[in-house]
Amino acid sequence: MAEVFLSPEIALPQYEGLREDPGRRKALERVDEILDALEEDPGRAWLRAHRFRSPPLWCVTFDASGEAWAILWSMDDDEDDRVLVDYIGPASFA
């Protein structure tokens, strides 16, 4: 199992915003499912389907009430069992 950390500058405020918005309940449920999967096994193929090279990040895309969203994450260089989530939100870049 891996530890999942949300970046305090971007991902954590985005996640907290989802939790506070009752209109985003389905998006929050999907985000929680993905974060749980990252915790269980970040090596799963579907979690690594899309990769950015610079900076090196993995991208998981999903539907959030008709809008494409993404979670950008990487493995911590200092801790083999730590996942760093850098972004949760609209996938306007994808």
What can you see in these coordinates?
This protein has two helices and five strands; from the N terminus they run βααββββ. The chain has 94 residues and is an alpha+beta fold. It has one domain (3-90). The protein has a five-stranded mixed beta sheet. Strand 4 and strand 5 (82-90) form a beta hairpin. The chain is globular, with a radius of gyration of 13 Å. The mean pLDDT is 93.
SSE topology sketch:
Layout: E1 3-6, H1 11-20, H2 25-40, E2 50-52, E3 57-64, E4 67-75, E5 82-90
Parallel strand pairs: 1-5
Antiparallel strand pairs: 2-3, 3-4, 4-5
Quick recap:
It contains two helices and five strands. The chain has 94 residues and is of the alpha+beta class.
Overall mean confidence score, pLDDT = 93
Instruction: Classify the helix fraction into a percent range.
Output: 25-40%
Shape: globular
Low-confidence stretches: none
Strand order of the largest sheet: 1-5-4-3-2
Largest sheet: 5 strands, mixed
Q: Count of DSSP helices?
A: 2
Computed Rg: 13 Å
Provide the descriptors you would attach to this structure in a database record:
2 helices, alpha+beta, 94 residues, single chain
